[in-house]
Design a protein that fits this description.
Elements (H helix, E strand, L loop, with lengths): L3 E2 L8 E3 L5 E3 L3 E3 L1 E2 L3 E2 L6 E5 L2 E5 L11 E7 L7 E10 L1 H4 L4 E10 L5 E11 L6 E7 L5 E4 L11 E10 L2 E6 L2 E7 L7 E10 L6 E5 L2 E5 L2 E4 L2 H9 L5 E4 L2 E4 L2 E3 L3 E4 L8 E4 L2 E3 L6 E5 L2 E3 L6 E5 L9 E5 L2 E3 L3 E5 L5 E5 L2 E3 L3 E5 L5 E5 L2 E4 L1 E5 L17 E6 L2 E6 L5 E6 L6 E6 L2 E6 L8 E6 L5 E5 L2 E4 L9 E5 L28 E5 L4 E4 L6 E3 L3 H4 L2 E5 L2 E3 L6 E3 L3 E4 L2 E4 L11 H10 L5 E4 L3 E3 L4 E3 L4 E4 L6 E4 L2 E3 L4 E4 L1 E4 L7 H4 L2 E4 L3 E4 L2 E2 L3 E6 L3 E6 L1
Parallel strand pairs: 21-22, 22-25, 23-26, 24-27, 25-28, 26-29, 27-30, 28-31, 29-32, 30-33, 31-34, 32-35, 33-36, 34-37, 35-38, 36-39, 37-40, 38-41, 39-42, 40-43, 41-44, 42-45, 43-46, 44-47, 45-48, 46-49, 47-50, 48-51, 49-52, 51-54, 57-60, 58-61, 59-62, 60-63, 61-64, 62-65, 63-66, 64-67
Antiparallel strand pairs: 1-5, 2-3, 4-20, 6-9, 7-8, 8-19, 9-18, 10-15, 10-19, 10-20, 11-12, 11-18, 12-13, 13-14, 15-16, 16-17, 52-53, 55-56, 65-69, 68-69
């Protein structure tokens, strides 16, 4: 019995594509061949000398099924999507003078079900009658058929040594002679296979002849596994020797923890493809590559995160690529936790309730190429997910966001302003590049999308660039935080101090304000609700200058009047109230306005928000105070009647709307002055008004 141990062969070739993604060529390992055993008929002789096998045919039997004289050897190849068998054949002058030669290499190819899927055969042939010389391949479908290799392949038939190679990759077999492809074909329903056995056969025509073949080199990409059940999937993931798993069509229920490099390939992400129901935790280290493709991934509970990458306190640095996948019915799609983790989504659709992709730590990267990504936020950074300090004192996370040729959608879930891309407070120093994409804010669960922005930039030290993209915010309302760009955060400067028992969302931002550079290019298409500004900011006046914002060549600032100003909330007296730049409470409605007037000291200024204060009864001012809009370009509106009963009252920069409802002065006057002196400046009244003196003190403004 002859045992042939093939030399282990491996090659690694790394290249970098134009997209910057590193790719590695297959890593082959060699098979060990078993002993050579007789096939249909034992040859007359069989001799192995070094790397060469010489065998000869018998005179009998001949010209029938048993006329194939030769031997077969089994391989130890396991299931794979990539294998190569290579040998050589010596054609001698003596052999070429004969009438009748058929000597061939046969491969017995098995599929995922462990049954024969194909006989792949190449042979040299001299016709016994015509003495025509040539090369042939075998078609194993149906009854089988020999086909001549066409003359345009220019394969010679003269004395010499010929290299015969048969390869298989991703369901296709390719046959070569002297490195010229002579035939290729798909093996039906066979995404993975293995060579069960190799045969050298020569056909007997009645007189003996000898041929010489080289011991075949058999190589394959090891670690492949084809699974079709839940348990097989779990077992394959747990088996460290498995580097690639191919799943048949169907539904699999499994929670998976992946701690090493692996490929998981399904049969498509559509209805008739491959669905994995369960959560996936990827904890691979040292840049190990985890590739998911052609899969539908969904957790068994809509409140679960579909795929978690790394751990919050860990140092795992997996590189995860999802290609042609669907991720849905989850709270989050990708929850990226560990420092340095990278996720690449290629033609992958994500539809979840919360964050489609959340970035939670330093030096992370998300790259999206194609696909539709949607959630409350399509992309969200969060400082509370894993940063070593969640307070904002990390000046730069070094995280990168790249989006190209994709559709990103924000589906608003509550009356809280949010965005398609949210750079959360305290998570600073991000580079974001969006090209050739569509970003849209829509409503969900009957919530009006007026609360959504396209870019919700709350943190500092970011560089955001958008080119050749569509930004759609046709339902956004500035007063609710809706805009193409929203800047700042409601609790940034006057929130609560950092303490263990204080929820993260209430803690103020400890970041040192630094420059944000936001550029939306001239080639972008922007759709905003009519009458609304493109930009909203809740930054305090000193911090507004940190946002360097350019949209289609125009600079946007509050002072230019093209940015809508909102005001933050402060934690004052154990409750949240709207505050001004100094942290002082502001009146947000009629009741709080009356309270502030009542508590005000003489000569105090009360700043009014750009909202409408509905006065159900006359607003009585009995002390010398100033009522003014906090922003000249965004006037507050007082709707009703005002009575001034003290000298020194100032009404400034207000809209005053009054409808006459009776005959008494305080019922029909916009402003009734029962004092020696009141100042009204830069106020707009609804309708025409007249002023008149009544008695020694009274002045009134009466609409008509």
């Amino acid at each position: 019995m002859n045992k042939i141990l093939l030399t282990v062969f491996a090659v690694i070739l790394s290249v970098t594509t134009n997209s910057g993604w590193a790719q590695t060529s297959p890593i082959y390992q060699s098979c060990t061949l078993g002993s050579w055993e007789n096939d249909r008929t034992e040859p007359l002789s069989w001799d192995i000398s070094g790397d060469w096998i010489t065998f000869s045919t018998k005179t009998e039997p001949h010209d029938n099924w048993f006329s194939w004289h030769g031997k077969t050897a089994q391989t130890n190849m396991t299931m794979t999507d990539n294998w190569v068998v290579e040998t050589q054949l010596k054609l001698t002058d003596e052999l070429l003078k004969r009438n009748g030669v058929r000597t061939s290499l046969w491969l017995n190819v098995f599929n995922e079900k462990g049954v024969n899927a194909d006989w792949s055969i190449l042979q040299f042939n001299i016709d016994n009658n015509t003495h025509t010389k040539g090369w042939q391949y075998w078609i194993s479908t149906g009854d089988g058929e020999w086909k001549d290799i066409s003359a345009d392949k220019n394969i010679p038939v003269v004395a010499g040594t010929y290299t015969i190679k048969i390869s298989y990759q991703d369901g296709k077999i390719i046959q070569y002679i002297n490195n010229v492809e002579v035939n290729s074909y798909d093996v039906p329903d066979c995404k993975m296979s293995y060579v069960k056995g190799i045969i050298f056969n020569s056909f007997s025509f009645g007189d003996s002849y000898a041929t010489t073949w080289k011991v075949p080199s058999v190589k394959f990409v090891a670690g492949k596994s084809m699974v079709s059940t839940d348990e097989e999937l779990k077992k394959a993931v747990a088996d460290e020797s498995v580097s690639s798993i191919t799943l048949a069509k169907g539904n699999y229920t499994a929670d998976l923890t992946i701690d090493r490099a692996i490929d998981i390939v399904g049969a498509g992400s559509g209805e008739n493809g491959t669905t994995i129901t369960g959560v996936m935790n990827i904890t691979a280290t040292n840049g190990a590559k985890v590739n998911l493709s052609e899969l539908h991934l969904t957790p068994n509970n809509i409140n679960n995160k579909a795929i978690t990458v790394g751990t919050a306190s860990g140092t795992e640095t997996p590189v995860v690529t999802a290609t042609n996948c669907v991720i849905d019915k989850a709270q989050r799609g990708f929850n990226i936790l560990s420092v340095g983790a990278q996720v690449y989504a290629k033609s992958t659709n994500i539809d979840v309730t919360y964050y489609a992709i959340s970035l939670c730590n330093e030096k992370q990267k998300i790259s999206i190429e194609g696909g539709t990504i949607q959630g409350w936020a399509a992309i969200m950074t969060t400082a509370n997910g894993g940063l070593s300090s969640p307070k904002g004192d990390i000046a730069s996370t070094g995280t990168e966001i790249v989006v190209n040729n994709a559709t990103l959608i924000s589906k608003i879930l509550s009356k809280e302003n949010y965005g398609v891309i949210v750079l959360q407070e305290k998570y600073n120093g991000i580079s974001a590049t969006i090209t050739n994409s569509t970003l849209t804010a829509v409503g969900d669960n009957q919530i009006n999308p007026q609360y959504s922005a396209i870019l919700d930039i709350r943190s500092y030290n970011n560089v955001v660039t958008v080119t050749n993209s569509e930004l759609n915010c046709t339902n956004g309302a500035n007063e609710a935080g809706g805009a193409v760009v929203s800047l700042g955060w409601s609790h940034a400067d006057f929130g609560r101090e950092y303490e263990e028992d204080v929820h993260f969302s209430q803690v103020k931002d400890y970041s040192i304000p630094t420059t944000n550079t936001v550029t939306i290019g001239n080639d972008c298409r922007i759709a905003m609700k009519e009458g609304e500004k493109l930009v909203v900011t809740s930054r305090t006046t000193p911090n507004q200058e940190k946002d360097k914002l350019t949209i289609k060549g125009e600079i946007y600032t509050v002072s230019k009047g093209n940015v809508y100003r909102q005001y933050q909330e402060g934690y004052v007296g154990s409750k949240w109230v709207t505050v001004d730049d100094k942290g002082s409470p502001m009146a947000t409605d009629t009741e709080s306005l009356k309270e502030q007037i009542e508590k005000a000291t003489p000569n105090a200024t009360i700043n009014l928000l750009p909202v409408t204060y509905k006065l159900e009864s006359p607003l009585q001012i009995t002390k010398a105070i100033k009522l003014t809009s906090v922003n000249a370009s965004q006037k507050a509106t007082l709707k009703g009647n005002i009575i001034i009963e003290s000298d020194g009252v100032i009404l400034n920069n207000l809209n005053i709307e009054t409808e006459s409802t009776g005959t008494k002065y305080w019922q029909k006057n916009a402003v009734s002055v029962i004092a020696q002196k009141a100042i009204i400046t830069n106020c707009d009244f609804k309708g025409s008004v007249q002023a008149g003196r009544m008695g020694s003190k009274w002045y009134c403004l009466v609409p008509y």
